Amino acid sequence: KREKPAALLDERIKKQKLPAKADISAVVHWFRTDLRVRDNAALSNAIKLLREIRGQKKDAQLIALYTINEHDWRAHLDSGWKLTFALNALESLREMLKQMNVALVVRKFESKKPLLSRSSEFVDWVKEQCVSLAQGNVLVTANAQYETDELYRDLKLFDKQDEQFRFQVYHDQCIVQPGSLTTGKGSQYTVFTPWYKRWVEYLKSHKQGKEAIKIHAVDQESKVNESLAKFESEAYELSDEFLAYLPCDKLEVPPATEADAHELLQEFISSGNAHKYNEKKDTLSLDSTSHLSCYITSGLISTREVVNRAFHENGDSLMRRDIKQNNSVENFIKEVAWRDFYKHVMCNWPYMSMEIAIKFETMDIKWENDEEKFSKWCLGETGLPVVDAIMRKLLYTGYISNRCRMIVASFLSKNLLVDWRWGERWFRKHLLDADLASNAGGWGFCSSTGIDAQPYFRIFNMKLQCERYDPDGKFVKMWVPELKDADNVRIIREGRSEKDAVDGYPSPIVDLKDSRERALEAFREAL
Ligand code: FAD
C-alpha cells in the first residue's frame, strides 16, 4: 500500500471532515492544474463551505492562491510553451475571479528541496500570512494531482493539519476517479478496451460527468485578499537564469482563457471536425483534431465538460447498438477516455511517473543510444522527411497530433533504437500540453514497453504512413522546405538516396529495412 500513494490519498479524502464552521475564518482555494472557475470540484466545494461557514461567521473570506516554484518547473522539464501558456492562463483566471469578488494571490516559493519535503514551508506561510490576516483558522482546498511526488506532498499536508491549518482535497482531474474501475479481481485493468466498457457503463449510471459543477459568485469585501496581494509583485520576479530558460517573448502560444477553450470545443463540433473525426484526424496536413490538449492539461476546461458536450452531440448515447460501430463522435470521446486510462494506470503503478517501464522485462533492451542520431531526431535532421517535418513542427509550435507523435516515437525507439525515455523527456521539454501520464503512456505504447502497448514487432513503415496520412506530401513540404520543389514521391516518402540531387537535405541516417531488423533482434533478445 505504501507503494500506492493514490490509494492512501483516496482514503484520506474519504475520511476528511469539515472542521467546526465557527472555527474557520478563511477558505483558501489552492489552484494547481485547474486554472478555471467553471466545473471545478475543489473550488465549488470551497465556495459551498464558505457559504456554510458564513452562516456562523459573517465575514469569513475566500482566498484564491497559486504557487510558483521555478525549481519545480525545471524538475518537471516543463516546456517554455507550457509555462508561457500557464502564465497567460493565470492572468485570465485573475480576471474571472475578480468578477466573483475574489483576488488571486500568486506566491513564489524559492525552496530547492524536493516537493515532498517542502510541506512545512507551505503550511508555515499559510499560518503566517493567511491565518494572521484572516484573524482565525484557515481551511485550504485543492484538487488532487496524481503524480507521485504531488500525491506524497498532499499526504504530508494532511498530516500537518492542526487547529489553524485544515486541508481538504477533491478528485477532479479525471471523469471517473482513479481506482473506481477494477477487474472482477479488484485490480487495475491492463487493457484499454474492457476498461473503456466499464468507463462508459460508469458514465451512464452516474450523474457525475453529466452536469458541470456550478460555481457561485462570492459576496465579499476583499480585505484579506488585498493585503495578500503584496506577494504578487514578488511572484513574478522570475530569475534571469529562469527567464533565459523561458523565452516568453519568442513564443506565440494559443490564447489561454476559459472562454477560448469553450469556443474551440464549440468550433470543433460545429465545423464538422468532430463528426468527421475518424476520417480526418490522421491526415497530417489537416490538423483537424480538437487542439484542446493544452487547455485540458492546464485545466482551463474539464474533460467532463468536453465529454458532456460530445455526448450531447451524439444524441446522449455511447456504445448504443444502433449506432454505427465507427461513430466519429464516440471515437473522440474514446480518445478523451485514454487520458483517464493513463491517469488510472499511473495511480496504480506510480513508477510510471518516474521514467520506469511498466513492462519491466523491456528494461533489459540493449538500446544503441547514439547521441548524434538522437540529436538529429530532436532537430528534424534525420533525412527521413516525415520524421523531420514532425520534429520541426514540434520545435516551432509546441504541438503535434497523435499520429505525428506515434510516427516519431516509433522511429526513435525502434529504427534508431534510442531509449524511449530520451524521447519522452524531449517531448516534455517541448510540448505545450506536456502531461506526465499521457506522455509516458504514449511512449510506452509506441515503444512496446508500456501498458496495453503495441506488440514489439509493430514498427511503423514510414512509406506506408506517408501513403496513408500525407498522400500528396503537403505536410512534408510545409515543414521541410528543402523538398518543396521535389516531385519524386520516393524522395518525399523515403528520403533521398546518395544519387538524388537535393540541395541542403541529408540522406537518411538509417536504412529503414536494416534498422527494423536490428530493433526486432534487440527486442527478441530482451523479452
Ligand atoms: P484530440 O484528438 O482532439 O483528443 C481530445 C483530447 O483527448 C486530447 O486533448 C487529450 O486530452 C485526449 N487524448 C487524445 N488522444 C489521447 C491519447 N492517445 N492519450 C491520452 N489522451 C488523449 N497528450 C497530452 O495531453 N500530453 C502529452 O504529453 C502527450 N504525450 C504523448 C506522447 C506520445 C508518444 C503519444 C503517442 C501521445 C501523447 N499524448 C499526449 C496523447 C495525444 O497525442 C494528445 O493528447 C493529442 O494529440 C492532443 O491533440 P488534440 O487535443 O487535438 O486531441
Name the features.
single chain, 527 residues, 5-stranded parallel sheet, 24 helices, 5 strands, elongated, binds flavin-adenine dinucleotide
Largest sheet: 5 strands, parallel
Protein structure class: alpha/beta
Please list the strands of the largest sheet in the order they lie side by side: 3-2-1-4-5
SSE string: HEHEHHEHEHEHHHHHHHHHHHHHHHHHH
Which strand-content bin applies to the residues? 5-15%
Mean pLDDT value: 89
Report the total helices: 24
Tally the beta strands. 5
Distance between the termini: 29 Å
Bound molecules: flavin-adenine dinucleotide
Low-confidence stretches: none
| Rounded Rg | 24 Å
Helix content: 40-55%
Shape: elongated
Show the helix and strand layout:
Blueprint: H1 5-15, E1 24-31, H2 41-54, E2 61-68, H3 70-75, H4 80-99, E3 104-108, H5 119-134, E4 137-143, H6 148-159, E5 165-170, H7 192-205, H8 223-228, H9 230-235, H10 240-245, H11 258-270, H12 277-280, H13 293-298, H14 303-313, H15 328-348, H16 371-379, H17 385-397, H18 402-415, H19 420-430, H20 436-446, H21 462-469, H22 474-479, H23 489-494, H24 512-526
Parallel strand pairs: 1-2, 1-4, 2-3, 4-5
The chain binds flavin-adenine dinucleotide.
Keywords: Chromophore, FAD, Flavoprotein
Binding site for FAD: 277, 289-293, 332, 335-342, 433-435
Domain Photolyase/cryptochrome alpha/beta: 25-175
